[in-house]
C-alpha cells in the first residue's frame, strides 16, 4: 500500500496536542463552540481560527497545495448551486453570470505559485539574504453583497495559499449562502488537512460584529471589499488594511475604435451580472464623430436608449434617491424590471438602458450598480479623457478604452492611474474573463495593492545568513 505523507501528517495533527502553550482544554472549548467553522461570537470564532492557523503554520507547503487543490476540485462540480444560493438570497444580478463569476474564482484564483514569483534571494561576499512571503496569521475579510460567494472563494484560496486562517464577515444580506459556503469550505479543508476552523464566521453577521472583529487583538490583517463607508471604518481600526473600495469606471471610445466590437464589448461588460461588478462600465464617453455609429451598434446589441426627457425623469425618480445614492431596491436588477417599474415603454429584450446625458447627470456621477448607463458625447479625445478623469472621481479603480491609436491608449492608461485599465475589451477582461491574468474580486484601490492575490495576503520577511551560501 502506498503511504500518503500528507494524510499521515493530517492524522498526527488531528490527534496531537499543541506544544505552543495554548491549553488543549481551551482549544477544545473553542472547537466545541462552533459548527463547521460557524460560531456564535466573534471572539470564539477568532480564537478558534488562531488555533487553527498555528497548526496550519506548522504543516508544509505541500499541505497548502493539497488544500487549495481540494477546494478547486470539490467546489467546481457545485458551482451552479453556489451561484444559485448567492443569487436567490441577495436577489441581485443574473444567475448565469454569477455561475461564470464563481467558476472563475474557483479555477483562476492563483494559489501558492503566486508566492514563488515574489520571493527573492541575494548572495554576495557577505553571505545570503532571503526574502520570503509568510502568513500574517488570522485575516479578517469583509465581503460585499454584490459578489457574495465569489469573493469568499477567491479570498479563501489566496489567503490559505499564503498560510493564513480567515475570519469572514459577509454582508448580512448574504448570510445564509455565506454560512452554507463556509461550512462546506471547512469540511473540504478539514478532510484534506485534519485542521478545523481555518475558515470561520459567526452565525449572525452584522455591521456591529464586523466592527468588533476589526479591533479584535487576534486579527492580524483586514481585507475589506465593499463601499467607501466600510473601507474608511477599517482604516480607523489602527490595523493594516487592504481596502478594496468603490469605483465608477468610465469607458472611452474614440473615432479610431472598431465601433462594432466596442459596442459589443460595452454591452457585454456593462450588462454583466446587471452591472454589479465594481469594474463594470458605468459611463460611456464617446467622441462626437463616432457617437451616432456607436449608438446604432449598441442598440443592435440589446441596449435600449432613453432620450425622451419625461422617461429620463421617470427613471431618475425610480432609481436615484434624494440623497443622490442608488435606490437599493434596484441595485443589480435587470434592465427590463427597471423599465417596467419606471413605466417606460420599450421593445425587444434590452439588457442595458442607455441615457443620453452629460457628465453632470446623477447616472454619471453616482456608482449606480445597475444596468442604467449614461451615454456622453464629447468633442474630441482630449475632452473625453478629461471627462473620464472627472467621472472616475480619483478612485484609481478601473477604466476601459476602445481605440486603435496606440499613443492615445498609452496616454489614457497613464493619466487615468487606475488599478485596472482594459484596452479594446469588456471590463471583465481585467479580472481574467476573456483577458490574460489571474482572477480577483478584491481590487485594493485606496490602499494601492490593486488586483490582490496570495502575495498580498503575506508578510515579507528577510532572513540573513552571514558569510555563507554564496558560491560565486
Ligand atoms: P457595502 O459597503 O454596503 O458592504 C460591504 C461589506 O461591508 C458588507 O459585509 C457590510 O456588512 C460591511 N459594512 C458596511 N458598512 C460597514 C461599517 N460601517 N462597518 C463595518 N462593516 C460594514 O457594499 P455592498 O453593497 O455589499 O457592495 C457594493 C460596494 O462594494 C460597491 O461600492 C462596490 O464598488 C464595492 N466593491 C468593491 C470591490 C473591489 O474589489 N474594489 C469589489 C466588490 C465590491
TrEMBL record:
Assigned keywords, A-Z: NAD, Oxidoreductase
Regions that span the bilayer: none
SUPFAM superfamilies: ALDH-like
InterPro entries: Acetald_propionald_DH-rel (IPR012408), Ald_DH/histidinol_DH (IPR016161), Ald_DH_C (IPR016163), Ald_DH_N (IPR016162), Aldehyde_DH_dom (IPR015590)
Residues of the Aldehyde dehydrogenase domain: 40-436
Gene Ontology terms for molecular function: acetaldehyde dehydrogenase (acetylating) activity
Keyword Oxidoreductase attached: yes
Pfam families in UniProt: Aldedh
PANTHER family the UniProt entry points to: ALDEHYDE DEHYDROGENASE-RELATED (PTHR11699)
The protein's name in its UniProt record: Aldehyde dehydrogenase EutE
Protein source organism: Liquorilactobacillus ghanensis DSM 18630
Amino acid at each position: 500500500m502506498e503511504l500518503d505523507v500528507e494524510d499521515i501528517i493530517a492524522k498526527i495533527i488531528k490527534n496531537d496536542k499543541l506544544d505552543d502553550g495554548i491549553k488543549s482544554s481551551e482549544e477544545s472549548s473553542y472547537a466545541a463552540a462552533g459548527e463547521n467553522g460557524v460560531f456564535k461570537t466573534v471572539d470564539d470564532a477568532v480564537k478558534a481560527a488562531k488555533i487553527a492557523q498555528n497548526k496550519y503554520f506548522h504543516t508544509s507547503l505541500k499541505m497548502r497545495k493539497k488544500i487549495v487543490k481540494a477546494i478547486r476540485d470539490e467546489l467546481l462540480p457545485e458551482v451552479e448551486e453556489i451561484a444559485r444560493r448567492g443569487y436567490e438570497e441577495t436577489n441581485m444580478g443574473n444567475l448565469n453570470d454569477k455561475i461564470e463569476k464563481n467558476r472563475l474564482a474557483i479555477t483562476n484564483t492563483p494559489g501558492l505559485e503566486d508566492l514563488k514569483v515574489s520571493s527573492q534571494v541575494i548572495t554576495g561576499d557577505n553571505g545570503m539574504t532571503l526574502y520570503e512571503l509568510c502568513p500574517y496569521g488570522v485575516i479578517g475579510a469583509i465581503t460585499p453583497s454584490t459578489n457574495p460567494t465569489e469573493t469568499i472563494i477567491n479570498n479563501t484560496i489566496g489567503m490559505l495559499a499564503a498560510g493564513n486562517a480567515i475570519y469572514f464577515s459577509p454582508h448580512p444580506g448574504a448570510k445564509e449562502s455565506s454560512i452554507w459556503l463556509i461550512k462546506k469550505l471547512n469540511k473540504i479543508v478539514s478532510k484534506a488537512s485534519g485542521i478545523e476552523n481555518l475558515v470561520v464566521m459567526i452565525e449572525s453577521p452584522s455591521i456591529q460584529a464586523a466592527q468588533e472583529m476589526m479591533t479584535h487583538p487576534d486579527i492580524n490583517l483586514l481585507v475589506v471589499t465593499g463601499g467607501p463607508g466600510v473601507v474608511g471604518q477599517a482604516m480607523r481600526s489602527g490595523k493594516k488594511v487592504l481596502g478594496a473600495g468603490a469605483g465608477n469606471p468610465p469607458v472611452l471610445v474614440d473615432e479610431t475604435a472598431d465601433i462594432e466590437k466596442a459596442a459589443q464589448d460595452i454591452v457585454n461588460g456593462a450588462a454583466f451580472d446587471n452591472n454589479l461588478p465594481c469594474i463594470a462600465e458605468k459611463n460611456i464617453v464617446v467622441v462626437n464623430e463616432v457617437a451616432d455609429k456607436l449608438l446604432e451598434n449598441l442598440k443592435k446589441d440589446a441596449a435600449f436608449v432613453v432620450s425622451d426627457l419625461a422617461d429620463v425623469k421617470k427613471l431618475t425618480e425610480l432609481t436615484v434617491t434624494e440623497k443622490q445614492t442608488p435606490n437599493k431596491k434596484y441595485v443589480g436588477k435587470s434592465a427590463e424590471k427597471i423599465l417596467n417599474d419606471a413605466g417606460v415603454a420599450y421593445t425587444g429584450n434590452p439588457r442595458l438602458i442607455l441615457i443620453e446625458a452629460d457628465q453632470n447627470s446623477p447616472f454619471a456621477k453616482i456608482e449606480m450598480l445597475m444596468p442604467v448607463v449614461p451615454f456622453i458625447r464629447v468633442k474630441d479625445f482630449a475632452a473625453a479623457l478629461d471627462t473620464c478623469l472627472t467621472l472616475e472621481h480619483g478612485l484609481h479603480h478601473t477604466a476601459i478604452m476602445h481605440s486603435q491609436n496606440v499613443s492615445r491608449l498609452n496616454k489614457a492608461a497613464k493619466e487615468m492611474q487606475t488599478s485596472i485599465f482594459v484596452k479594446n475589451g469588456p471590463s471583465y477582461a481585467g479580472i481574467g474573463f476573456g483577458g490574460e491574468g489571474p482572477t480577483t474580486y478584491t481590487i485594493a484601490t485606496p490602499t494601492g495593492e490593486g488586483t490582490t492575490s496570495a502575495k498580498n495576503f503575506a508578510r515579507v520577511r528577510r532572513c540573513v545568513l552571514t558569510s555563507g551560501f554564496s558560491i560565486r
